[in-house]
């Protein structure tokens, strides 16, 4: 069974109540729930939250919330792997489900589509991958990034060819946080969401907005309006 897990804790530092903050005409988490529900490959859409209000919003928009996440798994320091392990264990032990593939979808990526999810899952299986992470073209190429050590400006990436033109740079991508896929065995045997054969799913920048602050929220609304033809 292909399970989508949407982790959505109540606390957030950048934007208060971020996961259910209003984006255009609905709560932020609703976009991810709807994309997962529209997927042709996902069998169940589960929201893992410690917050009753988020749970009610998630249920209203069609997700299942079979448990309330323990408080110790809802802190700033709680790891994603432990959150996913808890969800899978509950589904298997308490609900009797057989979990095969886990598709982790962060609610802060509202512009990811059901087609993105299905294409990523299909690629994951077709390539016999151990894990998949969605990426988008890097906004700043790492070869241009500097650091300061003892007052001196130096290259952060060392021992590389010296490029002077942007066109000559090798392709570079950054994680966009929209989609993570892996097998159950990887999580429980290696305690990781990322395996040795980790493949990318490349998404364009206009579907890769990760909501962390008010500027991201405004950008997402602008892109949604563009998508709808406003």
Automatic annotation (TrEMBL):
This is N-acylneuraminate cytidylyltransferase. Pfam families: CTP_transf_3. GO terms for molecular function: N-acylneuraminate cytidylyltransferase activity. Transmembrane segments: none annotated.
């Amino acid at each position: 069974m292909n399970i989508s897990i949407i982790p959505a804790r109540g606390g957030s530092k950048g934007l208060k109540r971020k996961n259910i903050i209003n984006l255009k005409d609905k709560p932020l988490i609703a976009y991810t729930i709807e994309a997962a529900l529209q997927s042709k490959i996902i069998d169940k859409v589960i929201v893992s939250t410690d917050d009753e209000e988020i749970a009610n919003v998630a249920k209203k928009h069609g997700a299942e919330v079979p448990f309330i996440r323990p408080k110790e798994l809802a802190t700033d320091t709680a790891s994603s792997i432990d959150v996913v392990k808890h969800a899978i264990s509950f589904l298997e032990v308490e609900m009797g489900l057989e979990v095969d593939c886990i598709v982790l979808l962060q609610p802060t990526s509202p512009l990811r589509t059901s087609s993105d999810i299905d294409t990523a899952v299909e690629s994951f299986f077709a390539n016999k991958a151990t894990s998949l992470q969605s990426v988008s073209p890097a906004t700043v190429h790492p070869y241009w990034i500097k650091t300061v050590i003892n007052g001196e400006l130096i290259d952060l990436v060392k021992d590389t060819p010296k490029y002077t033109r942007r066109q000559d740079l090798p392709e570079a991508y950054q994680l966009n946080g929209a989609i993570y896929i892996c097998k159950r065995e990887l999580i429980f045997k290696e305690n990781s969401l990322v395996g040795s054969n980790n493949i990318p799913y490349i998404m364009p920048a206009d579907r890769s907005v990760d909501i962390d602050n008010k500027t991201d929220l405004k950008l997402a609304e602008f892109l949604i309006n563009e998508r709808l033809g406003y």
